[in-house]
Backbone:
């Protein structure tokens, strides 16, 4: 059986990749809900949603890059360490 090799990024890219994916998915979801609540499911909804999403992602990505380490420390101080 032939196994396909999957190319992986170096570990130093874990935080930026985590931030990129989390901010992209969360801003997509939140902007979709906000757009739907504001204008409803009208013709052209998808275009308006994507426009709102790109703007919100531009704010969300650097925010997650900065805030994720802080949130991890706060969470670590609120839970027992694994044994």
Residues:
């Amino acid at each position: 059986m032939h196994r396909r090799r999957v190319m992986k990024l170096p570990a130093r890219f874990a935080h930026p990749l985590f931030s990129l994916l989390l901010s992209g998915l969360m801003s997509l979801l939140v902007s979709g809900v906000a757009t739907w609540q504001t204008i409803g499911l009208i013709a052209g909804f998808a275009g308006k949603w994507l426009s709102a999403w790109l703007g919100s992602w531009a704010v969300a990505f650097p925010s997650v890059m900065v805030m994720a380490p802080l949130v991890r420390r706060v969470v670590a101080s609120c839970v027992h360490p694994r044994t």
Observations:
- The mean pLDDT is 94.
- The two ends are 39 Å apart (CA to CA).
- Residues 45-77 form one domain.
- Residues 45-78 form the longest helix (34 residues).
